[in-house]
Amino acid sequence: MRKRTYYVPLSLVVAEDIVASYKSTLICLCAVLASAVAKPQFGKPAYNYRAQQPVYTQPPQAVVPILAYSNDVSPDGSYSYSYQTGNGISAQEQGYLKNSGIKDQEAETVQGSYSYTAPDGTPITVTYTADENGYQAQGAHLPVAPPIPVEIQRSLDLIAATQRGAPNIPVYKPQPQFFNRPFNRF
């Protein structure tokens, strides 16, 4: 059997080379066009990182003198401190360890107060206690919860009265689980 040979015209081979070279030229042209479009517009850079950055400073303020200062720490862990400044700020605090040596009942107890003058000239004083019950602050300027309306208080009293005389509410008991029974497939 004779082997057949196919001849490809030279013009087709040359055309494929031309298309391949045009593809690479087209890709290079697209890359140049993309970099030209990405250039900052109107000759202004987006941000000049080399420029001197502004330095923000506060205007000088007068030094506030400390009129009184006391700080005492005892070996048992109790402490107290107080201070008073020339611009009317004062604070004092005492703290000690409550139920010392009793595991799971030890609690740091702190009592203190601070006062200052508000920008509108109102004197502000806060007295606080912090212990196992949390932080509790008191002051004339602090908001207070509104009183409970009479209707709601009456219904709360009625609920409390009916709960006292009601029989014991059954305690939740989980339903029995059937894990110990053999598994039946059919």
From TrEMBL:
The keyword Metal-binding does not apply. Pfam families: Chitin_bind_4 (PF00379). The keyword Chloroplast does not apply. Keywords: Cuticle. PANTHER family: CUTICLE PROTEIN (PTHR10380), CUTICULAR PROTEIN 47EF, ISOFORM C-RELATED (PTHR10380:SF173). This is Uncharacterized protein. It comes from Timema podura (Walking stick). The lineage of its organism: Eukaryota, Metazoa, Ecdysozoa, Arthropoda, Hexapoda.
